[in-house]
Amino acid sequence: MDDPIKSIEENLFNLLIRKRKVLIPGKGDVQDYSNGTKVTFHFKTEASYSDDDESDMVMIDDSKSSNKPMELFIGKQFKFPLWEEWIKHMRLGEVSQLSLDWTLCRDVYPLLSKSYRNFANPQDHNHDDPAKRSHCCGMAKQAGTGHKDLDDLINKRSPKQLRFTIELIRVENPNDVDKEIWLMNENEMQENIPVLQRVGNQLFAAKQFEEASFKYRKALAILEQLMTREKPGDQDWLNYDLGKIPLLCNLSQCELYLQQYYDAIRHTDEVLEKDPKNVKALYRRAKAHSAVWNVDQARKDFQRVSELDSTLQSMVKQHLIELDQQVKRKTHEDMQLLKGKLF
């Protein structure tokens, strides 16, 4: 017998979803989102504090700024059922927008946001008490979410509405979904690393840099997990640690194409800690430093590349010339701007 409450909920969802604003229509047909389908999407959440004026929107969350898209498995009790139903109406690549009255999401969104932030920035939440991670909104009002802006949404200045923007970037059939790391045994982990690297390389060759990054990151996460099972400094631990070098190099190249320069610097730093003479890492770090105006660091890395590989001297020379030209242009622009302010 059908659940009448669930039926009412689905009808409400469908009514709301039909009102969504499609910003980019996406490609192809709406896919078959059977249970177990894995979807990956970016989202943005903004709060409005007036009834009909969207000019006062305040940003709450933006997954692109964290470079960590959200994932969900269809039919696995996602925290925000409306979002799951909404995604089931979307085409791949679609970007759509939906505004909801705060009263319809106040019991759900703050905890969803907390879970996402803990996932996106786990190092910021190591102090979190696991016993407090799954509580209802009423308890959240007492215990807090650990994020001041979310606590303010719940307890102080509640918005009139939230506006959500979702971009569907990947849909994986249940038969094609990568097995989660925590479900793998040691042999499966070891077997998956070269597979993920190979697929990442294929995606990179196809200029699918974000998808390639995902494969490299998963392989690195597996290596990290394997290292936790070994004693630091033992041979197996060292082998796993060295195995990270090509993955980090490949990931940093993706990040350069995606203009994620600080991530590229961080990952090439890690390579160079293990292998100080790694020319690829030095060259990519030099380009990343150059892109974010770390001029001295860029020059130092370019010069070191030239010292380590004489065949690259002409290319490095050209990079240094371009860097000097950029500095001169920037200095001239700054002087003109300053001159305008002074006179």
Automatic annotation (TrEMBL):
GO cellular component, one term: cytoplasm
Protein name, UniProt field: Aryl-hydrocarbon-interacting protein-like 1
Organism domain of life: Eukaryota
Keyword check for Ribosomal protein: no
GO molecular function, one term: peptidyl-prolyl cis-trans isomerase activity
The AIP/AIPL N-terminal FKBP-type PPIase domain, residue ranges: 28-169
Residues in the signal sequence: none
InterPro entries: AIP/AIPL1/TTC9, PPIase_AIP, PPIase_dom_sf, TPR-like_helical_dom_sf, TPR_rpt
Transmembrane segments: none
